[in-house]
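Teaching note: in complex prediction, the entire set of molecules is handled at once rather than each chain in isolation. The prompt given to students was simply: 'Predict the structure of this complex.' The entities are:
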Amino acid sequence: MMHRLPRIGILGGMGPLATADFLAKLTHATAATRDQDHFPVTVESAPQIPDRVAALEGRGEDPLPALLAVAQRLGRAGCDLIAMPCNTAHLWHDALCAGTPLPVLHIADAVAGHLGGACRVGLMGTSATLRSGLYQRRIGNAHEWLLPTDDDMTRYVMPGVAAVKRNQMAEAAELLRLAAISLARRGIDVLVLGCTEIPLALRPGDASVPMIDATDALARATIAAATCLRDRNHGRAG
Amino acid sequence: MMHRLPRIGILGGMGPLATADFLAKLTHATAATRDQDHFPVTVESAPQIPDRVAALEGRGEDPLPALLAVAQRLGRAGCDLIAMPCNTAHLWHDALCAGTPLPVLHIADAVAGHLGGACRVGLMGTSATLRSGLYQRRIGNAHEWLLPTDDDMTRYVMPGVAAVKRNQMAEAAELLRLAAISLARRGIDVLVLGCTEIPLALRPGDASVPMIDATDALARATIAAATCLRDRNHGRAG
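The expected output is the structure of the full assembly:
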């Protein structure tokens, strides 16, 4: 008997290139030898969702109504779970979960699974992600969190993220590399790339420290969750 | 007054990595300085669509019912036009157009716009795409079409495409490079990469001949079509 495969919903467009990167990482995370081995996926790339950082800083529209509307579209499309390849948007994760019957994976949970015994964890992300303590509160005090200095945020990280959104990858790579090197010099065991724009420009080896790509971690967690749902549908242990 | 932006529908999953590549190329093809400048996109990655090459060779299920079902999903999602990042699937383009009210772009039309004055055009693609004359019939006799030999198809092209679908990119790159070099030696002005798996492994410069990436051509044509619809919605000349 043919069972329906779970359908993965991607609440994307924040930014659109990060969504394409997530879809590629989702494909690479799947054990497959042919097209038909992959899960069905519906992507809603909704770049008109209001800017998350601007909203957090009180100078822009609340993105929650748009996030909920896209989640509802994914529900109507028959999705069984939702992944959202944007770190900052996870500041609305609780509100999103309250507003949709579908499970919404959390990107910090996905990253937590890769931290292992790391003590000093460097974290790069948007000012909103860092200041809100999105990762630190969710993952907790087992790790010491090191963030870029205010100066490095202003000079390197935020302009680097903006350069990715303008498709200026060489400029973005240089800015983000300087921020990563600066954090690495302070002595960290691992560097979390906690903004989906960052791994589009920064590559492993650009700083002398292991990196965890949050986008890739979320992709792996999404495939693991979909596999679990599939196996449950088949009546085997999840 | 705020006008609704046209929504791009992607009939994807053939294969899933090619769909992610198309989404990235769509983003790069857009003139944008921030997320909100991009078009909304709905991607249906439907990897369970039956194998196109197998169907054409009479050893597999007809993919048309699945293609039509995905097109209908894109219609229900409010899409205004459909792009299909799979060359071989365009053998069902007429039937797809007959079965959906939405315009479906044609990948060969998108490539035609980049051929310029090229006389001798090399074409790499699946055996089904090449034998059916998908490009040659659609674009016509203004160009002389050169295809890989039967031996090169069996040894290099088809195993190269299959290797991409298994995520074995180094093996795929080597196989597809040998096929491209072999075609280039026969004297061609340009090489069309007419299978969406091929540009995932083969890079410009891998053969000493200019290449046209059909996936990228379709992405540019899709953004041009969406821009035209947007301008028409705004009441300006399309």
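Point out the following to students. Chain B has two domains: 8-108+216-233, 114-214. The radius of gyration of chain B is 18 Å.
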